[in-house]
What we know:
Number of helices of chain B: 3
Radius of gyration of chain B: 19 Å
Strand content of chain B: under 5%
Helix content of chain A: 25-40%
Number of strands of chain B: 0
CATH architecture of chain A: Alpha-Beta Complex
Number of helices of chain A: 15
Distance between the termini of chain A: 19 Å
Order of helices and strands of chain B: HHH
Oligomer: heterodimer
Amino acid sequence: MTQPLWAQPIEALAPRLRSCKLSPVALTQACLERIEQVDGRLQSFIHVSSSALDQAHKAEREIKAGRWRGPLHGIPVGVKDNYLTRDMPTTAGTVAPGITFPMRDSAAAVRLRNAGAVLIGKTRTHEFAWGNVTPPVRNPWDLTRVPSGSSGGSAAALAAGLCTAALGSDTGGSIRMPASVTNTVGLKATFGRVSRDGVVPHSWSLDHAGPLTRTVADAAHMLSVLAGYDPADPACQAQPVPDYTKALRKQVKGLRLGVCRNHFFERNQQDVERAVERAIDDLAARGATVHEFRLPLLEYGLGAIFAIELASSTAYHDVSLRAGRTPHFQPDVRSLVEIGRFVTAPDYLKAEQYRTVLMEALRKVFDTVDVVLGPTTPITAWKVGEWTVDVGGKQESVLAASWRFTYPYNLTGLPAISVPCGFDRNRLPIGLQIAGRPFDELTVLRVAHAYEREHPWKDELPNL
Amino acid sequence: MSDPDPYRDVLGVVLTPERLQENLTSFDDIRREIEKLRQLDLTDVHPAILFDPTGPYRREGGK
Lengths: 464, 63
């Protein structure tokens, strides 16, 4: 059965747009109507572009004139509200007085516009991209639950068909966690692969910019546009950018799959663990080999990421702290920004030393494996306002549990993707995380696509 | 001269006593994790962040 326009991925839409069998105007109109119909319940957009249809008309004229720019031409993309845009206000999720952001395009927005994408609106972020929720956004799979965060607006909008792809940012898992709990694909490429110029900083050495998409192929298309050196981002690296779509359709036979048995498999919800074990078995059945290992150092990771993230965020917000603006922040964000002062400089540097040893330990792992697989999160979407969840029969704080498997790849900067891998007993989505060597997004995409081909969870839609 | 206040004068935390207490309570779980990190002997390990004096020159052509 053909899915409605708003539910189709770039890989299905692009050939029809290119051949003029589908108009970018009709596609954009379908997304705008969908926003009108369902976003009152989801609250995923903070701003809808008044020029979306004009952008679509421009794309249509160009395509008709034979000036096709590539697979994103005419594709409606939601932009997380911490990316600067020249034609839409940026709030970074804050209403605190005295904090404004310039009306200029971030590097990612420039790249998307140059690729012909329609920037349809700004999606909600939790304030300053903090946290693992995105109030007031709801999860389209169950409106009483969160879409995680901080890119929860992008994930909810995408999952509900309000845009065809979206931008997110990921400091401890903020692209991959929302993707995991909404049955979408979230890709955090290697640190330095995608420019963060014009993305409101949260924690300079942990922040990554990247896409959320319906399919792995769409993630490859988005990364092909977003990746590349940008001197305006001091962390951006001048590495060659391959054609990421070449990773698609390759088999996994002969690939070595690493599975870290401590940390990633010690405490998961039962349905999550079962789904991920099944995914690993399925990939092994197609000729990949499984290599189990342990990484005891991960025990120290939470302290390290807290030290870096808190200290960095507090440094960024120091002016607001001294100006007395933090009481206007949301209560959880206010606390996090204020308590960053308790992290000492030696703690921060110790965390940076820890990153060196963790990166080295993972380098040794990658001597013997090609990717590392595991759950994206130990839990599925939790209820709005819930602060503790049952994880493997034990009550645990959502703050500690939700990002346990994602932050190691922010500390190490390695590429990691979350791809849908089934549903729990409450029909809530589960994510499989695949991580790779630095700048080896090709292999990460290859394994993700091989899994997705055989398990089309992506075709399941929320019932809104 | 009065003794410096460890929060206000040393850490730069300018908050009411009640708010300070709330934040200390919020920080408790995090403090425990950082405390674990402190137990590691990383004396001979260079931090992951490297100082790069060439940055401004590379960025000359940037925005």
